[in-house]
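I'd like us to work through together how a protein chain folds, taking it slowly. We need material for that, and I hope you will provide a protein of your own picking. Go ahead whenever you are ready, and we will take it from there:
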Amino acid sequence: PIFLFAGIGIGSVLHFRWDSFSIHCCKFGTENFNKNKILFIGDSITAEGTRPRGFITKLESLLQVETETICAKGATSVQIISLVESNTLNFRPDYIIAQSGINDLVNGVSEKETKNAQNKLLESIRSTFPSAIVLFIPIHPFFKEKNFFIPSNRPSTKIHLYSWWESPKKFAQDYLVKDGIHLNAQGHTLLGQNLAHQLTVNI
């Protein structure tokens, strides 16, 4: 019974911790990653990225980066602009990883208006942090009023994290929590892997 209990305990720990460390199974050229200050800007997706199993936390562990965040849960693109322009951070990022738009769409803003707002956010980011390389995360598939929604527009930026999922329906099934909007632990791992690849291979 003692060995059985120990086996169950170890198995539970490994299962609990597997996703947190699974990002390390991928190989990246981290030895060439010299610029290491990253500012993350966004809404609740960004905010949840700082949790123990969030994509920001996983990137910090993988790339040994110094990070800061400017974000607010429930914020629209326009509200995130206000956060950026009123920031008091004494932080000069090498990279900025931004995301917005889900709350715009959930609140009934059209895709065209959402893209315009995202472009204005990009302008604000570039004006506030002119020396940083900006990467904008596209809006992932999600459920809007119980209907499956796949956003088609992306903001106008030179560097994209193109769709970081293969099948939109499989993504919604496997990588979102029950609310149909936010990422689960596997979703954060998937995003973290793709960001690490973009930062160390494609830039």
The beta strands are 37-42, 66-71, 95-98, 133-136, 142-144, 147-149. The longest strand covers residues 37-42. The first helix runs from residue 2 to 22.
